[in-house]
Amino acid sequence: MPKNIALFFFLAVIVFSTNVASAQTDTVSMAVDVQKHTGAFTPLWSYFGFDEANFATMKDGKKLLAELGKLSANPVYVRVHNLLTTGDGKAALKWSSTNAYTEDANGRPVYNWKIVDSIFDEFIKNGMKPIAEIGFMPEALSVKPHPYQHHWKPGISYDSIFTGWAYPPADYHKWHELVYQWVKHCVAKYGEKEVSTWYWEVWNEPNIGYWKGSMEEYFMLYDYAADAVKTACPQAKIGGPTSTGPRWNKAADFLKAFLQHCTDGKNHATGKTGSPLDYITFHAKGDPKVVDGHIQMNMAVQLQDVARGFEVVNSFAAFKSLPVVIGEFDPEGCAACSVQFNPQNAYRNGTMYSSYTAASFARLYALASKYNINLMGAVSWSFEFEGQPWFGGFRDLATNGVDKPVLNIFRMFGMMKGDMLAIDNTALLQLQNVLDSSVGGSSADINALATADAHTVNVMVWNYHDNENRRNSAYINLQLKNMPGKKLQLQEYLVDETNSNSYTVWKDMGSPQQVSATQFNELEKAGHLKMVSQSTGTTVNGQLNYPVLLKAQSVRLIKISW
């Protein structure tokens, strides 16, 4: 073992032993073969979304978009609801509006792109690209417009959000013209080349209350919208149905019926057979609970959604190679539901959310490989909630302009590039075991992703378990084989209870809701990804042995360059 690495190990063991003397330690061996590439590292993680589209133009929303845009050289895609909803442009929980479409006294369309442009402008200026969700129904077009704006808040029935915006159009030709004019306007404003790189989709979760029409009426909605998009910009990409998790049989049936319609159904807009489809999208959600007074996550059901959706896609030969986007990929189903009324969501502020994110996104690569699916991305339905209490228990990446631990996992992903590498892991939980039982048994998910390009290897390792009260730490014997360089530079980044963690710092301040300028600066600094060590090393016969110590629910990125 090189002298400087040995010194690091000696010091780390002292700190480790002091901090976790009372905790049990799992020991794992991992070997990464730097010459054994398993495929390109697709940036599945670089997709984000949120209900409240107007947050994109507000103070903290702008700040967070700028940070997301800088995650990596890969473009970040953003999906938001309410881009066609009628209203004054003021956001509320699960509500936004753009007033893009109204009608004059004679029923003639009036288009106003000012607010929706301001939202897209924020994406574009930060190097991001929209997944442009075509919805929801403008008040003047809705077949049942009243009541229109909902006034939902945590603690009341979720179904109360489904008001006039969720209904079919009274006139499908006007709907077609609205979509056509919107896409045409985008081409004129941003250029056909740019718009051709976006992804357009029709509606959100039309198999539940978000759509108050029938399934056939959704197909009609899709046909008219797809034809309008392609007429305005033939190279534009259109997809759907953005349905809920397919492990629910009714959702799987809806996805199947939609794909069948696109294959050989009668197109309501053109009268031809089938409908344009450039990518397929559905959602996947986990299911946390409170068990014996502690949080217990459930990754299995989220991954079962993905697996079942992949099975449905594979049952259509014409669509097997199409890109797939998991339109919402989250630990549970309501970003705006607070811990006050949903105590199972208490995972959101600390390291359970960050470690779960690393572990669950990593499994997507294995699932895509198993089903031979062209998985393009998975949208984390998490952003920020403007003007809400500090660490209020929402599913978000930042609170009041301060980044939460989970955002640093995406920063780690953004540093990884090149090809994925094969990893031999003595403690690997097999994919089928996680699909069947999640990570709730006696073994933690002590696992890794590794990538390499011409001069760098990045290894992300994590120690995750579904049960909040399982606090076993992990000692990992990490071995890197066939390293092309001899003299190495090593950097480590860490997200755990005390590193890259603004939540712990905030609690240590006494959990203030009124934060001073000095406290804000301290919280902001704590929210950034922290480099915890920097050293040099030397390979021996192309090999480097590197010890890794991980507390429970922590994630570490090791960057090795030469």
Structure description:
The chain is α/β, with parallel strands linked by helices and 562 residues long. Helix content is 30%, strand content 25%. It has helices at 3-19, 59-69, 114-125, 172-190, 192-195, 215-232, 249-264, 299-314, 351-371, 405-415, 431-437, 502-508, 517-526; strands at residues 25-40, 47-50, 77-80, 101-103, 109-111, 129-134, 199-202, 237-243, 279-285, 289-291, 294-296, 324-330, 375-378, 398-399, 402-403, 419-425, 445-452, 456-464, 473-481, 487-495, 530-538, 544-550, 554-561. It is globular.
Note poorly predicted spans.
Answer: 1-22
- Helical proportion, percent range: 25-40%
Fraction in beta strands: 25-35%
The strand count comes to: 23
The best one-word shape is globular
Span between N and C termini?
Answer: 18 Å
Mean pLDDT: 95
Radius of gyration: 24 Å
Sheet bearing the most strands, described?
A: 9 strands, mixed
Structural class: alpha/beta
Task: Characterize this entry briefly.
With 562 residues, the protein is α/β, with parallel strands linked by helices.
What's the helix and strand layout?
Layout: H1 3-19, E1 25-40, E2 47-50, H2 59-69, E3 77-80, E4 101-103, E5 109-111, H3 114-125, E6 129-134, H4 172-190, H5 192-195, E7 199-202, H6 215-232, E8 237-243, H7 249-264, E9 279-285, E10 289-291, E11 294-296, H8 299-314, E12 324-330, H9 351-371, E13 375-378, E14 398-399, E15 402-403, H10 405-415, E16 419-425, H11 431-437, E17 445-452, E18 456-464, E19 473-481, E20 487-495, H12 502-508, H13 517-526, E21 530-538, E22 544-550, E23 554-561
Helix pairs in contact: 4-6, 7-8, 8-9, 8-11, 9-10, 12-13
